[in-house]
Design goal:
Layout lengths: L1 H27 L3 H16 L3 H9 L4 H43 L2 H42 L2
Helix pairs in contact: 2-3, 2-4, 3-4, 4-5
C-alpha cells in the first residue's frame, strides 16, 4: 500500500513539473518595451537618471509604455525645475540675510528699522515661496511614485 501511495504521489508531482515550467516561461517573457520601461523606472529611482526612459521613447515610439515614460519624464523635468527654483530662493534668502547683517552695522536707527522691515518682508515672502516650492516638489515626487505603482 505504501509503495502504491508513493508511486501515485510521484506520478502526481511529475505531472506538475511541465505546468511549473510553462508558468515560469510566461513570467519570463516580458516584451522589450515593457522591460525598458521597468528598467527606466528602476534606474531613476536608484540613480535619478532617466536615460533608459528616453531610450524607450526613441526605440519604441508607438508603444503604450512610451506615453507612460513621457509622463514620468515630464514629472522629472518639473521636479528638476522646482529644485532649481528652490535653490534660487534659498540663495536669495541668504543674500537678504547678508544684506540685513551688513546694513545693521552702517545705518542710522530709522534707516535700519526701515531696511529691517523690508528685509523681513522679503524674507517672509521668500520663505513662503520656498515652502510652496517644497510642497509642489513633494507632490510631484508623490505623483511619480503613484505612476510607478500603477504600472503592471
Amino acid at each position: 500500500m505504501k509503495k502504491l501511495f508513493s508511486c501515485c504521489l510521484l506520478l502526481w508531482l511529475s505531472a506538475c513539473v511541465p505546468l511549473l515550467d510553462s508558468i515560469n516561461e510566461t513570467t519570463q517573457k516580458i516584451p522589450a518595451d515593457q522591460q525598458l520601461f521597468l528598467d527606466g523606472v528602476e534606474q531613476f529611482s536608484q540613480q535619478r537618471e532617466a536615460s533608459t526612459l528616453r531610450l524607450l521613447q526613441d526605440r519604441f515610439p508607438s508603444s503604450p509604455w512610451t506615453s507612460k515614460a513621457a509622463a514620468i519624464l515630464s514629472l522629472i523635468d518639473q521636479i528638476n525645475g522646482q529644485e532649481q527654483q528652490l535653490a534660487q530662493l534659498q540663495s536669495q534668502l541668504a543674500q537678504q540675510q547678508q544684506q540685513l547683517a551688513k546694513h545693521a552695522n552702517h545705518s542710522t536707527d530709522q534707516e535700519l528699522e526701515e531696511h529691517i522691515k523690508r528685509c523681513q518682508s522679503d524674507n517672509q515672502r521668500l520663505k513662503e515661496e520656498l515652502s510652496v516650492s517644497r510642497r509642489q516638489l513633494e507632490a510631484l515626487r508623490e505623483l511619480t511614485i503613484e505612476l510607478e505603482l500603477k504600472e503592471p
